[in-house]
Amino acid sequence: MTEADLYTLYKGVYVPSYLHPPQSLKYYEEFTFRPDDIVIVTYPKSGTTWMQEIVPLIMSGGNPASVETLHNWDRVPWLEEHRACILNLERRPSPRIFATHFQYNMMPASYFKVKPKVIYVMRNPKDVFTSSFHYYGTTSFLVKPGPQSEFLHKFLNGKVMFGSWFDHVKGWLNAEDSECIMYISYEEMIMDLKDSVTRIALFLEKPLEAEVIEKIAERCLFKNMKQNKMSNYSAVPRDYMDQTKSEFLRKGIAGDWKNQLTVAEADYFDAVYKDKMKDVKYKFAWD
Ligand code: A3P
Description:
EC number: 2.8.2.-
Bound molecules: adenosine-3'-5'-diphosphate
Pfam families: Sulfotransfer_1
Family: Belongs to the sulfotransferase 1 family.
InterPro entries: P-loop_NTPase, Sulfotransferase_dom
CATH topology: Rossmann fold
CATH architecture: 3-Layer(aba) Sandwich
Number of domains: 1
CATH superfamily: P-loop containing nucleotide triphosphate hydrolases
GO molecular function: sulfotransferase activity
């Protein structure tokens, strides 16, 4: 099936129609934030699920009840997804935790008025590409990636879900309300998860004892999270996501692009990256 069959063009970017029917996009447009909401923002395949584990554990002071009993998509729901409309989010007690893949300029009016806390997770785009290439092949609601060289062009031109990685990252880095935003990368979390959890907890004004931080970081290690049925997508029927083709929690490493891209593809990627990111001052962990 093609883009026309599976995607809706929303504010200039593709969103999968199955997950984001018009009523859920409208729901998000009209959503009212609270100042103490926490919003995890990511370009897909950058560490969303990881953060959906870490943040609830921090906010509960290390109590694992929510990560053991609630699926990640109910625990930290995507505001633009069909389930958001039925979860009674308006009645959830504060502080509520949400996720979104929206670009900065796609955020609804209430976001700019209320300015809730945002954790923006970034990942080396070559690894985002690699993770996406495997993931797109497993789902029935995304256009199949096709040959790698074809998918590479689509990815670099933003003809994939939630649009261009470059626009996404640049939009959020240039956000006017950046004092409410914590920027963190997948690579920093791989390098030092304990330090990352500590910094996230401080940003969320929830300082924790060292041993609680230690426990959270241990729980959120790839090998442990992979066993959590509430976070590893094993509850999703195979018709929608066939994990026999590639697991959702697939490798969980930084630099897997080296096993995926040819030298020519990596060089091409770097050239596009250099051009598109030439005005960006932010020092990325992967550069
Ligand atoms: P890979 O496909 O490279 O393994 P998202 O949740 O945004 O869709 O991102 C999915 C990516 O994050 C996958 O990358 C997945 O394995 C990785 N991931 C999820 N939990 C992780 C963890 N605890 N540690 C490291 N990587 C993790």
